[in-house]
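Supplementary Note 3. Input sequence used for the single-chain structure prediction.
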Amino acid sequence: MKSMLKWLGVLAVAGFAMMLMVKVPALGLAEAGFCGNCHAMEEQVSTYLHSPHSYAANCGDCHDPHGLVTGSAYAAYTGTRDVYRVVTNTTPLEIRATNLSKTVLQQNCLRCHGDIMADIGDTRENGGRHCFDCHHEIVHVK
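The predicted structure, written as discrete structure tokens, is reproduced below.
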């Protein structure tokens, strides 16, 4: 029993370490080059590379939570989901943001554009819209 608990502990630590590797910039796992490896993301990568954001932000800067642990866990979850969809040929024809990813995107808009947003505040308040509801074509055409 002790041996099994020891191995479970080792696997948990190794899994956590691998999850955190998602946020290591040198690995490039949040870059368009990595995200573009999946044929389902060709349009998104192409539109991003032709946007002003390509000079200052990578895919993970917008699509992953900023925190090390929360961002790593979220990226590991969404990456695993995406790989599963490609392997099982269940990738949706139109890729849409989930409610959770919309929240992450909005938080990242506010984080990076805080100087502009300081006067405006969170656009979702009082039944408002997400930033990207109006500004979606800045990065992705659709």
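The helical segments are 2-20, 32-35, 42-49, 59-63, 68-87, 99-112, 114-120, 131-135. The chain has one domain: 2-138.
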